[in-house]
Write a structure and sequence with these properties.
By secondary structure, this protein is α/β, with parallel strands linked by helices. About 35% of the residues lie in helices and about 25% in strands.
Length: about 400
């Protein structure tokens, strides 16, 4: 979402300025054209040379820079930008923004901007909690400025509390979310993710290699696209994305109950979880002892969550995933019809499960559409864009 975006990164005076160096590196890596502007105080914490080397561009530090043809960097820099991000934003700089002060290049260009402004506050916890700062933050929100963070934790001064600037990775994710078109605004999504765990006895289970990464990537991107997301997580070892309602349901039966309890009012249901097809008829309460020969487990077929949701009288827009080791497109197409799904995502089982990237083919009534192999977050963006357009065209 950020490739070729132009961002002015403003750095003000604070110890968190060191995190801005990593942020520039990540932004450049994500394809962002970064123009760094530093206040005089910021130059006390980190040098313009560092930021120039990382951004690949000269850094602006004052009003009177002659390298801009018309001599008006405060106008030119914001006219070329898709957004201005101030990170770190000191308490003093926030106060300046509130009052529309324009006594250095960064404050002047913020006042003269015609693009969105995002600020990542960084300060001591008492400074953050001070009613003056809180009044300023409320005013900035009222003025349409996006506040990112701050985080809580140990501070450079040794105190512990709210006021730490978000980490560079978090700021990158926030900026990415900011630039993501809100294609799913107002929509409710229910997503199942991960493997299920069917207990044989208290210490043994039947499971599979699904990591939950694809489902979690879809949940994260759906939030970025403006949706309200309920995530039903099976067995995974990864952290759920922020701002989703996460419900843990590790067995196929628990997942079935959790989905059915939450399905009313959902606009879209995506079954990404690798749900066990069979589960032990009974779970032994005691650890099963080794026998001399073989062990026979009696399994029963689990309920098909996706097929049952798609067969509800008024179903949400249902999307399935098909993981196969051979004849992928054929099997996936058959599943789409059998489960009554408008869309199914086919992926090759062995290369998809557990990996950070995926190669998928979208199959709907118009045929197949293969996407290139890409990181799961990028694949999620393309899948959700397709879902949004199919869902909207069905409503109209
Ligand atoms: O039939 P198969 O298991 O290959 O179908 C895969 C799709 O169906 C996935 O979207 C999966 O989440 C869903 N599914 C389900 N409940 C099951 C089995 C599969 O929701 N019991």
């Amino acid at each position: 979402m950020m490739t070729n975006k132009k961002v002015v990164l403003g750095i003000t005076g604070g110890i968190a300025a060191y995190k801005a160096a990593e942020l520039v590196r990540l932004l450049v890596k994500a394809g962002v054209d970064v123009q760094v502007v530093m206040t005089e105080a910021a130059c006390q914490f980190i040098t313009p040379v560092t930021m120039q080397a990382l951004s690949g561009k000269p850094v602006f530090t004052g009003m009177w820079d002659s390298s801009i043809a018309n001599g008006m960097p405060h106008i030119e820099l914001s006219r070329q930008a898709d957004a201005i991000l101030i990170a770190p934003a000191s308490a003093d700089f926030l106060a300046k923004l509130v009052h529309g002060r324009a006594d250095d290049l960064l404050s002047t260009l913020c006042l003269a901007r015609d693009c969105p402004l995002l600020v990542a506050p960084a300060m001591n916890k008492q400074m953050w909690e001070n009613p003056a700062t809180q009044r300023n933050i409320a005013q900035l929100i009222d003025d349409g400025i996006t506040i990112l963070g701050p985080d809580s934790g140990e501070q450079a001064c040794g105190e512990i509390g709210l006021g730490r600037m978000l980490e560079a990775e978090q700021l990158l994710a926030e900026l990415n979310a900011f630039f993501t078109p809100k294609l799913l605004s107002g929509k409710r999504l229910l997503i199942t993710a991960g493997a299920t765990l069917e207990m044989i006895d208290p210490v043994r289970a039947i499971t599979n290699l699904s990591s939950g990464k694809m489902g979690y990537a879809l949940a994260k991107v759906a939030v970025d696209m403006g949706a309200t997301v309920t995530l039903i997580s099976g067995a995974t070892s990864i952290n759920p994305p922020p701002n989703v309602f996460n419900i843990i349901a590790t067995s196929a039966d628990n997942m079935y109950q959790a989905v059915m309890k939450n399905i009313a009012m959902q606009d879209i249901f995506i079954g990404v979880a690798a749900v066990a097809d069979y589960a032990p008829i009974e779970t032994s309460t005691k650890k099963i002892k080794k026998s001399e020969h073989s062990l026979t487990l009696h399994l029963t077929k689990t309920k098909d969550i996706l097929a049952d949701v798609a067969s509800l009288p008024n179903p949400p827009f249902c999307v399935g995933f098909a993981a196969e080791s051979e004849d992928l497109i054929e099997y996936a197409s058959q599943k789409r019809i059998a489960k009554k799904l408008p869309l199914i995502i086919a992926n090759e089982a062995i290369s998809a499960l557990g990996n950070d990237d995926n190669q998928v083919t979208l199959i709907d009534e118009n045929g197949t559409h293969a996407l290139s192999r890409a990181p799961k977050t990028e694949v999620a963006q393309l899948i959700l864009t397709h879902i949004a357009s199919m869902h909207i065209s069905r409503l109209s």
